[in-house]
Specification:
The protein is of the alpha+beta class. The chain has helices spanning about 1-25, 30-55; strands at about 60-65, 65-70, 70-75, 75-80. The chain has a domain at about 25-80. The chain contains two helices and four strands.
């Protein structure tokens, strides 16, 4: 499975180039397409910033791995310092 992922990651830029050449054979991209791509990149960037703040724990907290207690699995969590 890892080999397939590596091959797909290698071929993705070539596939995107071919797709670009098929969609814009004259060599130019429309203003609408460029605006949509720019908007998608802005949304991606803002999502990455938001996701970094949501799931983070305090730098001084210690991580407690999942444990098995009383027949139940207690999920991992951050313990206060």
């Amino acid at each position: 499975m890892l080999r397939l992922a590596e091959i797909l990651l290698f071929l993705t830029p070539f596939a995107l180039f071919i797709l670009w050449r098929v969609l814009a054979p004259s060599g130019g991209l429309s203003v609408r397409f460029v605006a949509l791509v720019a908007g998608a990149l802005v949304v991606l960037f803002l999502t990455l910033i938001w996701y970094r703040g949501v799931g983070s724990m305090s730098p001084h907290a210690s991580y407690v791995p999942p444990t098995y207690k009383d027949g139940r699995i207690v999920p991992g969590h951050a313990a206060p310092p």
